[in-house]
Amino acid sequence: MPSLILQEPCKEYLKHRYCPKTIRERRKVFDALIGLKIAPTQWAFNYSYFSSGIEVIIFLDSKICYFGSKRRKHMEFIDYYKTLELNKNATDADIKKAYRKLARKYHPDLNPNDAAAKATFQRINEANEVLSDPEKRKKYDKYGKDWQHGEQYEQARQQQQRQHNTSGGQGFSGSMGGEDFSDYFESLFGSGGGRRAQAKFRGQDIQAELQMNLRDAYTTHQQTIKVDKNIRITIAAGVENGQTIKVPNHGGPGANGGPSGDLYITFTITNDTKFKRDGNDLYTTVDIDLYTALLGGEIMVDTFDGGKVKLTVKPETQNGTKVKLKGKGFPVYKKDGQFGDLYLTYQVKLPTNLTEKEKELFKELANKK
User: Fold this and answer.
1) CA distance 304 to 331
2) What are the two backbone dihedrals, phi and then psi, of residue 244, each rounded to the nearest 5 degrees?
3) pLDDT the model gives residue 91
4) How far is the C-alpha of 239 from the C-alpha of 142, rounded, in Å?
């Protein structure tokens, strides 16, 4: 960058102006002023707007240093409301909600090696930087579509100058957090402005499915599920088919130091047993022979846990009779020691391959009816 030119105020200074091409070059000018040990409090700024650029005159005591920005190409108006998929009547809460939704969707950490997503994310950040700040939003709403007019620049730069004077001359060197905003943004608000820290974003939730059989669901056990990496989880007894459980902080990684998302596991439970499950209750059929059904007697029945229960069958028990065994059903999810009931349906089996004697006895019984 050429040395700063100091001379008496006159029209001739136009011949000696330095024209920085970018905002960054403009910062170098201020760095040079500091290097010359010229106190920031001695700086005064006057901004003149021209049809294709901005020129700045810096007064240093009775002398002046003049420099101006290189003439810019026409910068297209950016509709920040459209960027955030909002209308101009959006509330602060609407803006915050829309920003978080879109920033999470297009965040570079969640879209690695996606240049388009990165560019969209930068536009979303820029729109939020303006619309979430009441003063900037007010200025954007008033001057946004007519940003080429001098009044707009005058007000914007004077506001920035007030910030400059009160902050010890650092108005033009505020950090933008490493993000490149558009020329349109910088033409309205400059390159400083004390940008807010980047928002932290929670990672995406992950949906997964885990298949298991009914006998596994009967007991509390551990099982490994692979979702990007192996995760070992404890499954409580009584989990149901189609039930979804949440495993906190085992979803996608967060962005900007935000927390991880959650892992949601939906269970598909297969059943290859003779028991039918309905909630916490179990149902099954028990075969009894005709003689036991007619005369009564004792039978042994199987329970789901592999045990056996002795039952007394009443005489003249009818086919389809139901019996309830309390507490012999399925475990109640996450309620230790609580079980549903087991319902048995008697199915009377008729004898086959009767002997002649047996046939005669049945005929005798039939005739007595």
Assistant:
1) 11
2) -115, 130
3) 94
4) 59
Three-state SS letters, the chain:
CCCCCCECCCHHHHHHCECCCCHHHHHHHHHHHHHCCCCHHHEEEEEEEECCEEEEEEEECCEEEEEECCCCCCCCCCCHHHHCCCCCCCCHHHHHHHHHHHHHHHCCCCCCCCHHHHHHHHHHHHHHHHHCCHHHHHHHHHHHHHCCCHHHHHHHHHHHHHHHHHCCCCCCCCCCCCCCCCHHHHHHHCCCCCCCCCCCECCCCEEEEEEEEHHHHCCCEEEEEEECEEEEEEECCCCCCCCEEEECCCCCCCECCCCCCCEEEEEEEECCCCCEEECCEEEEEEEEEHHHHHHCEEEEEECCCCCEEEEEECCCCCCCCEEEECCCCCECCCCCCCECCEEEEEEEECCCCCCHHHHHHHHHHHHHC
Q: The CATH number of 206-270 is which of 3.40.1790.10, 2.60.120.260, 3.40.30.10, 2.60.260.20?
A: 2.60.260.20
**Residues across the chain:** 369
Could you check whether 80-136+166-189 and 206-270 share the same CATH topology? no
70, 17 in Cβ contact below 8 A? no
8 Å CB contact between 292 and 304 = no
| Residue ranges covered by each domain of the chain | 11-68, 80-136+166-189, 206-270, 276-368
Q: What amino acid occupies position 338?
A: Q
Run means of pLDDT, 10 residues per run, the chain, 369 residues = 37 40 57 51 37 38 38 60 91 92 87 88 88 84 56 52 51 37 56 55 88 96 91 95 94 85 94 96 96 95 95 96 97 95 96 90 83
CATH, domain range 276-368: 2.60.260.20
CATH 1.10.287.110 fits 80-136+166-189, yes or no: yes
In one-letter notation, the amino acid at residue 92 is: D
